[in-house]
Design brief:
Elements (H helix, E strand, L loop, with lengths): L9 H9 L6 H6 L1 H22 L6 E3 L6 H5 L1 E8 L2 E8 L2 E8 L6 H10 L1 H16 L3 E3 L17 H4 L4 E4 L4 H5 L3 H23 L9
Helix pairs in contact: 1-3, 3-9, 6-9
Length: about 210
């Protein structure tokens, strides 16, 4: 277990700068230890501190090293909330990014999602939640069909939501000024609190099983 999160250091940005472009395997391997120390370990420390603050967010994974350059240039992590419902984090030269929602759906999840969007009570609730997040600067993304699903009217009041085959809300970028300080812990905790109603809706209506999430 790593120590308390104190922010990513300038060395983290220096390592990532050296990994820009299409770095050869020899360069990547020469930077493996530095990247582990300055880039990956702080992400582990961050999520340990987040889990200490909010125990419901303790089921997380921090990605290791892979063959493709992208994975060396971006440090990813995920906090699992329910089946295919997650909070995703990424640290790179642009700072710390956070998004959350439902993606890579299992068979049966898309029909459950559509049924919940069509239902007046649950559908109106989701529309209100996504509208509120959008007003607070969250970007709503996901796998969006070009046309309405078969059998649903094009003028449905929640037509855009019905076209989603995944649904994610991306927090406004925190920037490197936050990533360089312990304030990133509060930033993640605050975003998780704002996203909790959406994650709860997705866990209840879409996921096959859910973890309790306050």
């Amino acid at each position: 277990m790593t120590g308390a999160f104190n922010g990513w250091t300038e060395q983290a940005f220096d390592v990532l700068l050296r990994l820009e472009g299409d770095p050869p395997r020899q360069l990547r391997e020469s930077l493996r230890k530095e990247r582990e120390l300055h880039v990956r370990q702080p992400m582990i420390a961050l999520l340990n501190d987040v889990a200490d603050a909010v125990p419901a967010l303790d089921d997380f994974s921090v990605w290791g090293f892979r063959k493709e350059s992208w994975w060396w240039q971006h440090q990813g992590a995920v906090i699992r909330i329910a089946r295919q419902v997650e909070i995703g984090l990424r640290f790179d030269l642009d700072g710390l990014h956070l998004k959350a929602g439902w993606h890579y759906p299992d068979p049966g999840q898309v029909p459950r999602y559509r049924a919940a969007v069509v239902a007046e009570s649950s559908g109106a609730r989701l529309a209100a939640l996504t509208g509120s997040l959008g007003a607070r600067g969250y970007g709503l993304t996901g796998d969006l069909m070009k046309r309405m699903p078969s059998g649903l009217p094009a003028d449905h009041p929640r037509a855009r939501l019905l076209r989603h085959r995944s649904l994610l809300a991306a927090a406004p970028p925190a920037g490197d000024d936050v990533a360089l300080t312990p304030a990133a812990v509060d930033q993640v905790v605050d975003a998780a609190e704002e996203l909790a109603p959406l994650l709860s809706w997705l866990s209840h209506h879409v996921a096959a099983s859910a973890r309790a999430h306050a």
